[in-house]
Amino acid sequence: MAYFQLCNIFAKKISRMRIVGLGNALTDVLARLHSDECFDEMGLLKGGMQLIDEEKLLRIMSVFEGLETTLASGGSAANAVSGVARMGIESGFIGKIGRDAYGRFFREDMERNGVQTLLIEGEQASGCAMTMITPDGERTFGTFLGAAATLCAEEISAEMFEGYDILHIEGYLVQDTSLILRAVQLAKEAGLSVSFDMASYNVVKDNYAIIRDLVENYVDILFANEEEALAYTGEEPRKATEILSRYCRIAVVKCGAQGSFVGCEGIITEVPATPEVRVDSTGAGDLYASGFLYGLSQNCSLGVCGAIGSLLAGRVIKVIGTKMSDEIWTEIKLKVSSMVAEDIRH
Q1: Which of 107, 220, 227, 236 could form a disulfide with 193 if both were Cys (CB 3.0 to 4.6 A apart)?
Q2: Distance between CA 155 and CA 150 in Å, rounded?
Q3: Which of the residue ranges 48-52, 77-81, 277-281 would you say has the lowest mean pLDDT?
Q4: End-to-end CA gap in the chain
Q5: In sequence order, which residues have a C-beta less than 8 Å from that of residue 182 and are 6 or more positions away?
Q6: d(C-alpha 254, C-alpha 7), whole Å
Q7: How far is the CA of 172 from the CAs of 3, 51, 150, 261, in angstroms?
Q8: Is the pTM of this model over 0.85?
Q9: Which domains does the chain have, with CATH numbers?
């Protein structure tokens, strides 16, 4: 079978793709730091993602008082479906919020970005990610999950998946095995394909058994960065992509500035990164998934799906946070339209 035919079998099945995300509903509170000196005061390690309790949240908020902050709806899956929605694909999001200002903001911001919200309200405070961006563009997260972490299997219903073609899940949910298994089982019963982002090296390392179950039995499209792929396979990116593509219809391993690898039934395509000056790397992997899934919806070859993902990832790192202006999205869509048309001609 020819390469183009092989790698587009899956895409042709979802040419009218509608995507629903499932993940932690978080409001990103972003602040640009002038130096690294305040990390000790906040009890955080630079460059990491640390779960925090309410006491540490208040400590971080006291540091933020003297800084200019920006709010945006966030969370890995929420970012991905927001990006897909901005590209014009019908999208929804399942998550849990509190009955408070952050919860209201999350709902309204997602809807402003064109996402249908399927949100459950709980008694706890809404989750938030205190996001600190240092002058080198690196981001550090202090994440208070709050209500987001109380989403449970019993709150997921088959009706949530009606009208959608793909369920996109963030790997952070694997810590609740019953929740994530119910979601993928209901999605499969409803005829959806499953897209899964491995989330982080530590998530893969600490939850290997459930992730292996998901990858080998439920996942159709897999996204991992090179560290996550190494944690799962023990191999370098290209070999890891080959291994992962034996279990999933499509496997993607992202390597930052070195680009990405896309695998389909053992055939590997190398995709270069889009060279950009990094201001803030928040959401780069999530927007890569947005672009890749959009490419699939347009019947693009997998190499072009990866190139669209790289374009979105490269563009979002030039702004603070994960939400880009209407002008930037117009520019992106014009470029992507040209890429899709060129791919169809070939």
Answers
A1: 220
A2: 10
A3: 277-281
A4: 17
A5: 153, 156
A6: 18
A7: 34, 11, 13, 23
A8: yes
A9: 3-24+75-124+151-345 (3.40.1190.20)
